[in-house]
Specification:
The protein is of the alpha+beta class and about 240 residues long. The chain has 2 domains: about 5-175, Murine Class I Major Histocompatibility Complex, H2-DB, Chain A, domain 1; about 180-238, no CATH class. It is built from 5 helices and 12 strands. The protein has helices at about 55-85, 135-145, 150-160, 160-170, 175, and strands spanning about 5-15, 20-25, 30-35, 40-45, 90-100, 105-115, 115-120, 125-130, 185-190, 200-205, 215-220, 220. The strands form 3 sheets. Strands 4-3-2-1-5-6-7-8 form an 8-stranded antiparallel sheet. Helix 1 packs across helix 2 (about 135-145). The protein is globular, with a radius of gyration of 23 Å. GO terms for molecular function: endogenous lipid antigen binding; exogenous lipid antigen binding; lipopeptide binding. Keywords: Glycoprotein. Pfam families: C1-set, MHC_I_3.
Length: about 240
């Protein structure tokens, strides 16, 4: 599929003065870095991430992230106080960009509140749209219409630099992105209430990339779909 550079943010507002933020960046399913929850500095998780961009670019990105988080905290504290939202509450954000095969790209920004979809930002039309019909979502939408400094920062981070930065990171990430790791399969049996029957379980782990096809064979032939066959979705870190 098309490569996606994505940032995840979780901010917990414990009370009016105590706020904690966690952040992580991914290229596809490869973790690139985490945000120090105290200093908001970036800690790189792969040795090839920092050299992908000039130091001045990383300094600019780091500064913009810190300004964004400061404005985000202020905006949400102000809005929830006016609407009298009780503490604690949690805001989640996911934002980034996708690079298509024709070298065009699309950026995206979504905001969640206490685990539910809350707001989205359309970077083409520069408009915020509520994703829930609540007083807080409507107020935030109106507030953001006039909060041009925050909106311009979002545009700069994700609509102006995201694709360019991802293209440079992709060059250094090539080995990790193209690696192939064969799956390991372990089959074990469990006794069923009927002593004449056994439950066979196959656990497949350690493979990369995530796309994998698993099938059962009987006497060298693939077992066709059957109600007796079941499978689980891909589990994290499988």
């Amino acid at each position: 599929g098309s490569p996606v550079l994505q940032l995840f943010q979780t901010t917990t507002f414990h009370n009016t003065v105590y706020v904690t933020t966690e952040g992580m960046g991914f290229l596809g399913d490869i973790p690139l870095g985490i945000l120090d929850s105290h200093t908001w500095n970036i800690h790189f998780l792969k040795p090839w991430v920092r050299p992908a961009l000039p130091r001045s670019d990383w300094d600019t990105i780091s500064d913009m992230i810190k300004i964004y988080l400061s404005k985000f905290h202020h905006l949400l504290q102000e809005s929830t106080a006016l609407i009298e939202v009780p503490y604690p509450f949690v805001a989640q954000c996911t934002a980034g960009c996708e690079l298509f095969p024709n070298n065009t790209g699309k950026a995206f920004v979504y905001v969640g509140f206490n685990g539910d979809d809350f707001l989205t930002y359309n970077l083409d039309t520069r408009t915020w749209l509520p994703l829930q019909d609540t007083e807080l979502a409507r107020y935030m939408q109106e507030r953001l219409k006039n909060y041009t400094a925050f909106t311009e920062l979002i545009q700069m981070l994700f609509n102006h630099t995201c694709i360019d930065d991802m293209e440079m990171i992709l060059r250094t990430a090539k080995e990790d992105l193209e690696r192939q790791v064969r799956p390991m399969a372990v089959v074990f049996a469990r006794q069923m209430p009927d002593p004449a029957r056994l439950l066979l379980v196959c656990r497949v782990t350690g493979f990369y990339p995530a796309a994998v096809r698993v099938s059962w064979l009987r006497d060298g032939h693939e077992v066709p779909p059957d109600p007796a066959l079941s499978s689980t979705p891909l589990l994290p870190n499988a």
